[in-house]
Amino acid sequence: MAVPEYVVDKTTKLEGLYNRIHEIRMRFEVSWRDFQITQYQALICSETDQVTVQQRLVEKLQQLLDDCAFIAECNVGGEFLDEDRIARLLELGKQSWQRYFSDSIGLSQEELARNLLTPEAELPANECLFA
After folding, report:
1. Percent of the chain, pLDDT > 70?
2. Is the dihedral of CA 85, 93, 66, 25 positive or negative?
3. What's the Cα-to-Cα distance from 66 to each of 14, 27, 34, 39, 43, rounded to whole Å?
4. How far apart are the C-alpha atoms of 40 and 57, rounded to whole Å?
5. How deeply is 71 buried, as exposed, middle or buried, from its count of CB atoms within 10 A (0-12, 13-18, 19+)?
6. Positive or negative torsion for Cα 20, 57, 59, 97
7. Are 123 and 99 in contact (CB under 8 A)?
8. Buried b (16+ CB within 10 A) or exposed e, 118-131
9. Predicted structure pTM score
10. What are the CA-CA distances from residue 75 to residues 7, 9, 19, 102, 128 (Å)?
C-alpha cells in the first residue's frame, strides 16, 4: 500500500493539498456576517429603519452569492476568460475583509522562517479577499 508523499511528509497535522476555493468561500461567509452585524448595529442605534436594513441585507446577500458563484466558476479551469470576466475578477480582487486572528499561529518552524521577511500586520488586519 502506497501512501502519497503529501500525507506522510508534513510539518503540521493540518497541512495538505486542498482547493483554496474553500478559503475564499469562507471569506465571503465572513463578509456576509460582518455586513449583517453593521446593519443590525445601525438599526439598534436608530441610524436606519428596519425596511432599509432588510433591503440592504437582501441586496448584499445576492451580490455576495453572485460573486462567490462567479469565482467558483472561474476556479474550475478550462474556460476562456474574456475581458469582461477578467475585469470583474480584478474588481472583486479589490475587495477586502477583516482578519482578527494572527496568521502565524499554528505554523511550522519552516513556514515561520519563510514568513520572516514579511512583518505581521497589526490586528485587526484588512486583507484582500483573494490574498
Report:
1. 87
2. positive
3. 30, 14, 18, 20, 26
4. 10
5. buried
6. negative
7. yes
8. eeeeeeebeeebee
9. 0.79
10. 24, 27, 9, 27, 17
Do residues 40 and 48 touch, judged by C-beta distance below 8 A? no
Domain coordinates in residue numbering, the chain: 20-128
Mean pLDDT of 88-116: 89
Which grid cell sits at 71?
A: 469565482
Number of CB atoms found within 10 A of residue 85's CB? 14
Amino acid at 26: M
The cell for 75 is: 476556479
**Three-state DSSP state, 127:** strand
What residues have CB less than 8 Å from 21, skipping those under 6 apart?
71, 72, 75
The pLDDT confidence band at residue 108, using thresholds 50, 70 and 90, is confident
Are 97 and 34 within 8 A, CB to CB? Answer: yes
